[in-house]
Amino acid sequence: MDAAVSRRAACACGQLALDCRGEPVRVSICHCHDCQRRTGAPFGWQVRFPAEAVAPSGEAAHFRRTADSGRAIDFRFCPRCGSTVWWTMDRDPGLVVVAGGAFADATLPPPSVEVYAARRHGWTAMPALAGIESHP
User: Fold this and answer.
1) Where are the beta strands (DSSP E) in 4-112?
2) Predicted model pTM
3) How far apart, in Å, are the Cα atoms of 47 and each of 16, 27, 80, 110?
4) Which of 84, 90, 114, 116 holds its CA 20 to 30 A away from the CA of 42?
């Protein structure tokens, strides 16, 4: 991991941000229904970092829900503009998942995997990505 790389993810109004050091451990596309609802799009774009590589700033609101797996997910979003910036999952306690669209940096690595491929909308195409039918 290149610790010299630093990227900033932020909400739409800029009040809530997350500084991320190093390269992400995984970049993925998720087709689960919850990501579709969260983004208002056919899939979510997730960028995962080790928890120790991220530093939040600003005020975050919190929403906890149960995922399809039955485990909890904790979302952090801006109380002013409502943008989700990051979340953590009980199943991966050492990782912070950042909404890909929160980065202005166009140099992020491309997704390497798609999750919940069975829920992909038929008109979307994810060439060259490994498909995972569900998420344990």
Assistant:
1) 6-10, 17-21, 26-30, 44-50, 54-57, 61-66, 72-77, 84-89, 92-99
2) 0.87
3) 17, 5, 23, 10
4) 90
Q: Confirm if 1 and 23 have CB atoms less than 8 A apart.
A: yes
Tally of CA atoms within 13 A in the half-sphere of 10 that contains its CB: 10
- The sign of the dihedral angle between the CA atoms of 116, 118, 120, 125 is positive
Instruction: Please say whether the beta carbons of 74 and 93 come within 8 A.
Output: no
Residue in this structure with the two tokens 């202005």, named with its chain if needed: 104
- Report d(CA 81, CA 84) in Å as an integer: 9
40 closest CA partner among 108, 99, 117: 99
Write the DSSP symbol of residue 25: S
- Residue for token pair 């080790």: 50
Structure tokens at 65: 């829900």
**110, 102 in Cβ contact below 8 A?**
no
Report domain 6-121's class: alpha beta
